Amino acid sequence: MKKFPVFLILMNLCAPARPAAIARGPYIENMAADMATVRFRTDVDTVAWLSYGAWPDCERFMTLSPEMKEHAINLFGLLSDTTHCYRIYLGDSGGAGVYKAEENAFRTFRGIDKPYFNFLAFGDSGSGSEEQLELAAQMEKFDPDFIAHTGDMVESGLDANANMQYFGPYKKMLAKYPFFLALGNHDYGNRNESKKFLRENYIPFHSMPRTGLPPYFYYFDEGNARFFVLDANYFSGAKWAQPLDKGSKQYKWLERFLSKTEKTWKFVMLHQPVYSTGAHGAIEAQRAALEPLFQKYKVDMVFQGHDHNYERTRPVKDGIPDDKEGIVYITFGGGGRPLYFQRANEDWSEKFLPVYHFAHIEIKEKNFAMNVYDKEGRVIDTFEVQK
């Protein structure tokens, strides 16, 4: 008699009355050297099974997600710097009982003993525009370790629009590469929305590292770098955003972990810019609160959004170019929404371009190298730092 794996027998017993389908995802989040989270949404409440293992052994392990639509499966004990493949099985009433709904792979992060990695950075994409899709097609040509987003993933902030403006355009990349997200003002919805807005339209659908108060603020490590992701929406009037002024919980958290970090590189990512000559510009209260902290603990670079343009500053300190003690601030805000033009000229602004863009950044020990691309795949800026 032919024998069937136990999990397939259980699948048959649990299969729903009609075939279930993936309505969103899968997408990889919360990546580390030894873990990752695989998330997906099904169109009906259903049990789901996920098999995984170091490539090409995709059936090495099996785990089950209970009957629901919003599935988040945490995978622990993974091998670092290793490609893992995974398969998602859903119920199928067509006879077999189950079917393979998705198959893909991801690569876990490296430890500090391997100080090299690469990533993509962009922001202000939530639009569903043709330009957003053109940029996504260019980004798909790369094989990054992760993707950093500086905020405004969905213009309305509503989960109902997230497939068209976020999960759809980046579907191929989301299934392979973790996205690390900074909350933007649009992700909070209208400023007058209720306190429940983020809880209902964002928090249930994202898994962030639990190294802070996710998804508002957190940090993650890759190789010899630590990335601090902040929620700066408090400064632009988001009523329910986490305070970030001196003495707040978020500020104290940031200072604590900046002071303890011994990584070679320290990067900060937030939505509202600390330095910008774009249409929004900087918020003085935000700069006054954060810049001294960044200077004190020697942050290397700040990635920001909000202004729909690309801008790179010279090393700047207290509003004055300073090649010895200054910090470089880079605005990645041309991810798909209507572009902004330059509001003012400043000595500390090195490059300003009102173009749709994304950046590819590579770290090799003490070397930082960045190429910025437009939606046609042309290089529009290059920047390199040697520590």
Mean pLDDT: 94
Q: How many structural domains does the protein architecture include?
A: 2
The low-pLDDT segments are 1-13
Whole-Å distance between the termini?
Answer: 66 Å
Radius of gyration: 21 Å
Biggest β-sheet strands, sense, barrel? 7 strands, mixed
What is the CATH-assigned architecture of the largest domain?
Answer: 4-Layer Sandwich
What's the CATH topology label of the largest domain?
Purple Acid Phosphatase, chain A, domain 2
Strand content: 35-45%
Number of strands: 20
Top CATH class of the largest domain = Alpha Beta
Inertia-based shape = globular
Q: What structural class is derived from the secondary structure elements?
A: alpha+beta
Element order: H for helix, E for strand: HEEEEEEHEHHEHEEHEHEEEEEEEEE
Give the neighbour order of strands across the main sheet: 9-10-11-12-16-13-17
What is the number of helices?
A: 7
CATH superfamily of the largest domain: Metallo-dependent phosphatases
Helix content: 10-25%
Short description:
The protein is α+β, with helices and mostly antiparallel strands. 15% of the residues lie in helices and 36% in strands. It has two domains: 6-107, Immunoglobulin-like, CATH 2.60.40; 116-386, Purple Acid Phosphatase, chain A, domain 2 (4-Layer Sandwich).
